[in-house]
User: What shape does this take?
Amino acid sequence: MHNPYTVRQYGHISEIMAIIGYVIPTFILVTPTFYIPYISKTLGIPYYTTFIIIGSPYIGRFIGAYIYSRFRYLGTPFMLSMSVLGLTSFSISFLNSVPILIILRFVIGIAFGISTSFAVEVAVRTRKQHIIGLTTGGWAIGWILAAAISAVVPYRYASMSGAVAIPLSAIGVLLRRVNIGHVIASGFNFSVYGFLIYFLAFEPAFVLQIIPQIYGSAAFLESEVAYFLAIPAYMIFPIMAKRYGFRKALYSIASISMILSIFAFLYLNFYAAIVFTVFGLAVNAVIPGFLRDENLSPEKIGPSMNFSAINGFLVPTIIYLIGSIRISAVAITIFSMACLIALSDVGHRIFSHSSTSVLHKA
Assistant: This one.
């Protein structure tokens, strides 16, 4: 018989695991991004091959999201994914084979999908907006850690530092027999609506990949300032959204992002780029609460989020295929944000009457 899972019953342990389960995987995932020239030169490969190595985890996240839905106990996905992340990151530091690197980065993506699906489900079930913010803000924290490490140590040592995930995985032992929220027999926990909302909401965050090319040497300062500001924004946005309404918050953030994209990409306004980055990252702290209000069960939110991460590969690829990078970035951002507003409105009307999702009480 299935026992209801209540995060609050286990105090701060689950909350800490949720935050760690997003921060450390992000750190391991993005660290090679800061060494692209070094990787290309050392391996003797063109930049597009380097980007295949860097981007392969985004595809692996699909599988990770599915695998997560098959676990029965809370501690298991945390222990497994963190162990795999640590071991794989450490192993990569000694390898120079491009095919093997692509495969191992793909494995990192699978583990990332498992860990972050777990993290988001646990965070949402706490019903604490600051925990949801800190958890989803793990993306910004992970980026900052990776940037800091890359500024002081060579690539191989930075990759080896990912092994810190191995001892951290032991925390999962504390909750190894706690039933997880979803029912295994129900199949893959996934929502098309949740996927589409995340797919569109992720666009501003993923379009940031073109910042280094259009801002040049100023890109590093822009990213550092913006990501630091994004951390408190990750906590403030969901708190304000809960007070004034998640739908209103989503509309406002999407509308502001459309305007900011024009100044950030067309006019190359440095300060607009910083604010755009903050909004583009922190909007994803609002999405879990928004989907929760839409009666989407928490166990569907994490996998839906990870499936939508394919946009991390699609957005820069489409921009470079179209050409006119700055114009394309603005056009895709405005289109995505307009669709996000429309979908959230239509989805509300449809799902408020016909949703069959069960809202689990935390």
